[in-house]
Amino acid sequence: MAMEQPIRLGVVGLGLIWQAVHLPNLLALRDRFQVTRVCDLSASLARSTASDLPGAVASSTDWRSVCDDPDVDAILFLTPGDHAPQVLRALEAGKHVLVEKPLCVTVREARDLERAAAAAGRVLQVAYMKMYDPIIQQARESLASLGARRIVRVTVLNPADAPQFEHVALRRPADVEPAAIEDDSAYALERTGEALGGAPLALRQLYWGSLLGSVCHELSLLRALGIGLPARFEAARAWPFRLDAPATEPPCLHGMADLGDGSELQLSWAWLPDYPDYAEEVAVFGTQGRLRLEMPGPYLPAHRASLHLEGVCDGIRASTTYRAGHTTGFVRELEAFAASAMEGAPVLSTAAGAAADLACLQQFVATLAAGSGIAVKTEVVA
Fold first, then answer.
1. Which residue, among 15, 22, 8, has the nearest Cα to 96 in the 3D structure?
2. CA 34/CA 53 separation, integer angstroms
């Protein structure tokens, strides 16, 4: 469906990611987007946001009203939780959808949503912004110069949220009913039972928390680089972590897997709540060189990705460094969403890709459980 006017956009969820990232980016892309409706569980936040935006912007507390609004062409879902019911309702109402991760909790839901988008003839794009970082294409092309891959190492140092967005004057409304948030969390946790069978509660909370909340980004980044995801993990660790008690904070995670091409994946995600800075690195070691990709923190628009290559040509050692421009992955994903909705451009971060991420993360949990003598029957195996 070709569109000549700016996309009339509805926004559901007006918390951190909206205030720190999407709001300023949408204002900068006003030639492609016009926000016509906003929605949040906080009526006061929805009203104040609507009054601050240009034009006549409606507000509500019910996401269904956004799906049913004829003055909305596309919806940006920024709420936490399992987005499957929201996305399905929006697609069936004829809306294009850009949805924050996690798209959903189960592989089944992701596949159902992919089919629903195709049946509706609408765009469904998962907000994996790392896939859209301007340096990714250069990194993907550079992998060929490394020879045969031997090791792919992903390392993330993840601090608590507060230090990452202390520069944001975040609006924190006080008129949200706790029961509404509890209902969403309960629904998502229920879906983990389908994803992981009869897994203990601690494993289902780990899957829903750290894995779907953050590690899924690392898998999408590997896919964007053209590196296939493992079918299973040879080893998986979580620490400090107990199966017999709910965790009070996320554990550190480490996994090792055969990538099937002669190389091994070493995936490490470290929860460092008092560490002030987010850090993320993908390092690839091959028989003829090595690559190191450093990704920026998610909430700092001035930070840029960098790519470092080292190799040997005719006995001469060479080192090259690339730095991304100031257009962030968040901006690029919005531009790509507009191109798909307005011009029919193909979608990069699809629901099918999200399904692959979910299947891989379920295998991590299964391997972790096996180390404690527990058999977890994931939905893919089932």
1. 8
2. 10
